[in-house]
Amino acid sequence: MGIFPAGETHDPRPTGKLIAAKWKHEHLRVILIGAILSFAVITMYTSLLNGASAKSVTVVDDGKFAVYQTRSSDVSGFLEEQNINVGPYDRLSLSLADPLHKRGHIVIERAKQISIQADGTQQVKYTTEQTVGSALKAFGVQVGAQDRVVPALDSPLLEGIKVSVIRVRTENTETKEPIRFAVVERKDADLAVGKKKVITAGKPGVLVKKVVKVYENGKLVRQQVLNQAVAQPAVQQVVAVGTKKKPKVTTLAYNASTEGNVLKLNGNTVKVKHVLNNVTLTAYSAGVASTGKSKGHPEYGITRSGTRVQEGRTIAVDPKVIPLGWWVYIEGIGLRRAEDTGSAIKGKKIDVYYDSEAYADRFGLKRGYTVYVIGPVKPTAS
């Protein structure tokens, strides 16, 4: 049998180097764990510190809400940090130097540009007021009780709005106006036909009116009659109108030639009653120089026959030569109607009426005219 060496019965003892390595490994692990724990503690502490210093700020900018996180200590720093611009006319609820609290609240009212037209001037202003009335008051623009503002005082202010202050002034006045008198005609059997006579002279009345006038910016825009009353009634004018018929004219003072008692007018043959030769013509007007009556006289422009004078028609005659109402043809003058008389018109003399008093004066005295007496019916072109 062979011989085998005897085997070891247990582990050999550790050497010193092994013990030292094992100790070092344990300590490194402890150190690493300690470092990790320290970093965690520092991080947590820093986070707590940062959380403690952060602020939540609510900003209401022209009615719009927004919430910001900031570490700024005052309002000025916060606005700069958030790039929020505030204009010179804008309004802040806090001053720029005010400190920010943990839960701050800032209100920014943005100024609006408005145009104010008042008292002849126009101004451009900036304001944070909310209504037209408060803006005018803030700028010292007085508004009277009668003044009108466009838009109205309670209208909201909008960007670029134009405000007009219209100065209103009322003025009460009293005026007097004449009341025309009525003319009443009454028949008078003792007065010849064609004659008129004023029995009672008319007199204008007086009407008093109380008027309110409204001025806007110095210009009259409307007026209204508040009341009116008759201070003096008008007196009617009474005129007598003659109805007494004149006796028929049976003879003429002048016997005109009967030869060729026809007249050619516009190619038509017109029979004539008689022909007057060597007639004298003068001229007159309705004015004072010819009749002694002015325009205010009740008989101004009224002829002896009762008609109103008319240039191109009316002549004054001697009724014993040419009856009133008869038509005549004056050579060089034309057709005329005998409607008037005159104290100086006697015999073969005719006064021709003209509207112009100056022309009547220049007419002078003209002799040698031939006059064809036609009759009471005016000849026609037919």
TrEMBL record:
Pfam families hit by this protein: 3D (PF06725), DUF348 (PF03990), G5 (PF07501)
CDD domains documented for this protein: 3D_containing_proteins (cd14667)
Q: Name one process (GO BP) from the record.
A: peptidoglycan turnover
Annotated keywords: Membrane, Signal, Transmembrane, Transmembrane helix
| Highest taxon of the lineage | Bacteria
Domain G5, by residue range, is 165-245
Task: Name the InterPro entries for this protein.
Answer: 3D_dom, 3D_YorM, DUF348, G5_dom, Resuscitation_pf_RpfB, RlpA-like_sf
Q: Any stretches that span the bilayer, and where are they?
A: 30-48
Output the Gene Ontology terms for molecular function: hydrolase activity, hydrolyzing O-glycosyl compounds
* Cellular component GO terms, alphabetical: outer membrane
Protein name (record):
DUF348 domain-containing protein
Organism equals Cohnella pontilimi
Q: Top-down, what is the taxonomic lineage of the species of origin?
A: Bacteria, Bacillati, Bacillota, Bacilli, Bacillales
